[in-house]
Amino acid sequence: MTAPAPTGDAPAPDRWWFRPVPLARIAVFRVLVYLFIPVDVFLTTAWAKAHAHVPTEWYDPLLIGRLLPLPTPTTTVVLVVQWALLAAALAAATGRAPRLLGTAVFLLYAEWMVIAMSYGKVDHDRIAFLVALAVLPTIGRARLRDRRSSEAAGWAMAAVFVTIMLTYFLAAWAKIRFGGLDWPTGATLTRALVRRGTDLSEWTLDVPYLLAAAQWVMLALEFAAPLMLLVRSDRARIALAVFLLGFHVMVYAGVQIIFLPHCVAILSLLPWERLTARFAPPAPAPVHPDPVPRPSPAPA
């Protein structure tokens, strides 16, 4: 499902979900997503493999694990899922069989998350990345130098964008739901800095009211996250992505917490087709046939 590239930066509201997106952007983002999976398996969630060696009675599956007949994580199950996921992700990064391999990656990664999060710890930085894995196979083939635009790609990137927004908004809702006003008025950040602070952040403990004010600012920004959906031009989306990524880098520098899968999902906001266009061969010049020679007129 393709359509010409949009001529303006502000499409009609009823077209927001299907604003055409260049397929070259999808091709780059797809490679970034699939190549991140080995990083996640061996670094970010390397601890998930340890669940292969714990008693099976400790397994308390998430809701999806209770609704579906998913296998109990044994040593064999965990190792098979791990290596099958790695193989499928590397194969999908090549761009071949995008629907088949992309679907396999999504299903295997979802099972890897069930294995990781069914022992009492559930992270909230995975949902946008999971949605990206779910929607990428719906687009089909996309190449790095593909100059076409696609409404299917637009819908997929809009789904990821909305999920990124909901990650922040629902995080604020959870803070108030479970912590009440004690979250912004208490010593939330102070406790985090005492436990995980770094040389770059520990000085804030000595500044009166700074951390308390920062808690209110964080809560206000997260509740205001739906305003992100008003950002439409490529330039504004680049600024938004830089702001969000900068926020997560700052959090890591301060308390050594980084939401890597979520940061990868944020990369979907960037116009990667501009980068690939620099390396694309120039369009061939139109070839005009030589005019047919006419016989010169006969002398009178």
Classify the oligomer: single chain
Instruction: Output the radius of gyration.
Output: 25 Å
Structural class: mainly alpha
Give the low-confidence spans: 1-11, 282-287
Number of strands: 3
Question: How does the overall form come out from the CA principal axes?
Answer: globular
Strand order of the largest sheet: 1-3-2
Number of helices: 12
Quote the distance from N terminus to C terminus: 64 Å
Number of domains: 1
Strand content: under 5%
Helix share bin: 55-70%
Report the average pLDDT across residues: 88
Describe the largest sheet: 3 strands, antiparallel
Instruction: Give the SSE string.
Output: EEHHHHHEHHHHHHH
Subcellular location: Endomembrane system
Domain HTTM-like: 18-264
Protein name: HTTM-like domain-containing protein
Membrane topology: Multi-pass membrane protein
Q: How would you characterize this protein structure?
A:
The protein is globular and about 55 Å long. It has one domain (17-279). It has a three-stranded antiparallel beta sheet with strand order 1-3-2. The chain has twelve helices and three strands; from the N terminus they run ββαααααβααααααα. The termini are far apart. The chain has 300 residues and is mainly alpha-helical. Helix content is 55%, strand content 2%. Helix 3 packs antiparallel against helix 4 and helix 5 (127-135) packs across helix 11 (260-266). It has helices at residues 23-44, 63-67, 75-92, 98-117, 127-135, 151-179, 182-185, 188-196, 210-223, 234-255, 260-266, 273-279, and strands at 2-3, 21-22, 149-150. It comes from Blastococcus xanthinilyticus. Keywords: Membrane, Transmembrane, Transmembrane helix.
